[in-house]
Design a protein that fits this description.
single chain, 130 residues, mainly beta, 7-stranded mixed sheet, 4-stranded antiparallel sheet, 11 strands, 51% strand, globular
Length: 130
């Protein structure tokens, strides 16, 4: 049973930083596409960033230059380093993943769409005050 467990959310002031973590367990995989999504109240879930086992990463325009996605293969953990946070970054942040036991799984051009992922975490809240 695949589990994705996020941590690292919290409350910070504008301009501050947070690092989110997502620990994956329950699946032996050789390749992956993993991403971070966020959802603010009354808004649709938005793809924030994604990374695949080839090391390729993608970002939504609004976070480019401020957020960095990374993956520690030894720890099976996905990270999102968030710097220069803004009030508009306030949302519930979700980890999402698609795994394959074989090599060759990469993030699709539509990485930002929730349908590209089979597994989801429970979310961690990020609140940025002005």
């Amino acid at each position: 049973q695949v589990q994705l467990v996020e941590s690292g959310g919290g409350s910070v002031q504008s301009g501050g930083s947070l690092r989110l973590s997502c620990a994956a367990s329950g699946y032996t995989y050789s390749s992956y596409c993993m991403g971070w999504f966020r959802q603010a109240p009354g808004k649709e879930r938005e793809g924030v960033a994604a990374i695949d086992s080839d090391g390729s990463s993608s970002y939504v325009d609004s976070v480019k230059g401020r957020f960095t996605i990374s993956h520690d293969n030894a720890k099976n953990t996905l990270y999102l380093q968030m710097n220069s946070l803004k009030p508009e970054d306030t949302a519930m942040y979700y980890c999402a993943a698609d795994f394959s036991p074989q090599s060759g799984l990469f993030c699709a051009p539509s990485w930002y769409h929730p349908r590209e992922y089979n597994y989801w975490g429970q979310g961690t809240q990020v609140t940025v005050s002005s």
